[in-house]
Amino acid sequence: MVPADAVRSKTPIIRNRFLKPSAAADGFKHYMDKKPKIGILGVGMVGGTLKRYLEEKKKFKRGRNLFLYDTDRKKGYQDNINFADVIFISVPTPQNRDGSADLSMLKAVFETINGKKIIIIKSTVPPGTTEFFSKKHPEHKVLFNPEFLTEANAWHNMLNPERQLVGWTRNNQEAAQRVLSLLPQAPLASPSSELNLTATEAEITKYAANLFLTRKVTFANAIFDLASHHGANYENIKLGIGSDPRIGQSHLDVNYHGYRGYGGYCFTKDTNALIAHYKKLGLQHSADLFNQDRIFNEGLLRRQGLTPNDVSLHDKEWIKDKPACRTGRKLK
Ligand SMILES: NC(=O)c1ccc[n+]([C@@H]2O[C@H](COP(=O)([O-])OP(=O)(O)OC[C@H]3O[C@@H](n4cnc5c(N)ncnc54)[C@H](O)[C@@H]3O)[C@@H](O)[C@H]2O)c1
């Protein structure tokens, strides 16, 4: 893997400029287009929210400058994605048996893309993945734009992101800036004069944010156990801890969706994927640190009669499929 600094040193930083005169010459004529043709591969929670944004806020029209493809025929999105110049990929990255991220769907969709495109991976992927695809497909400009939306407030999060990061590979900073200009603005943006992330840095940022939050949940549950042992009211303690702006109230709840511990579509698989990645790199101490959170969480779930699979669901599936859990289970 090429270290970020090495990539930087070879690549001049271009700020506050979306277009470069040479862009048309390298075959990426769409750099020059005010409104490029956009494609979305995988129109689920993430892709579907992006679709809504492009249609409602940017006035993109399906079939004219917006092309959608999803393998789920019931969704009715079977457009020819190759009509697009700029393609967002938001297919699932579930976990393999060993916990690592399964990139097979991502690999499969790359094979369906022809010509020279700007491709933005939005799926959560292990550090180095975007660099890998960039090298494997040098004909494209491959970028990474992590998605931070929450399922409960997806549309609000889409319109009001805290940060909008488009991480670049090789010499693709102009493409990153162009893509950034298509997305909702955020107080912190990259590339910008404030921040200039490589794709690998953006990939790590996404995992780090999720694992920090899962750690907060396990921490909160450990404090809850202490409070319960002493007959103390955890809710009072929670307010006391969370009032510190360095800590904050979020993810200190010990009963979310009616069970203790973390769950949801992403937390379990992302934790497992990062642990597997640390192990692959031989960074065993860090793998152990996060593995301990995983073991703690699985224990909590087990004592409620749940498995990580039971709670690794989209919110809407949870509400549909798990009414018993929503009403709350007692820890065994
Ligand atoms: N759900 C979230 O809140 C959230 C937040 C941030 C990041 N992410 C990440 O974004 C990615 C997608 O998550 P999601 O929640 O949108 O998943 P999702 O399951 O809601 O949607 C994925 C869609 O991709 C489709 N698909 C599968 N294989 C395909 C293929 N080969 N070609 C085209 N379409 C295909 C599926 O039919 C589905 O409609 C994952 O990597 C996830 O970790 C999700």
TrEMBL record:
Limits of the UDP-glucose/GDP-mannose dehydrogenase dimerisation domain: 201-292
UniProt GO molecular function: NAD binding; oxidoreductase activity, acting on the CH-OH group of donors, NAD or NADP as acceptor
Domain of life: Bacteria
UniProt-listed InterPro entries: 6-PGluconate_DH-like_C_sf, NAD(P)-bd_dom_sf, UDP-Glc/GDP-Man_DH_dimer, UDP-Glc/GDP-Man_DH_N
All copies of domain UDP-glucose/GDP-mannose dehydrogenase N-terminal, residue ranges: 76-176
Family, similarity comment: Belongs to the UDP-glucose/GDP-mannose dehydrogenase family.
Name of this chain's protein: UDP-glucose/GDP-mannose dehydrogenase dimerisation domain-containing protein
Organism: Candidatus Giovannonibacteria bacterium RIFCSPHIGHO2_01_FULL_45_23
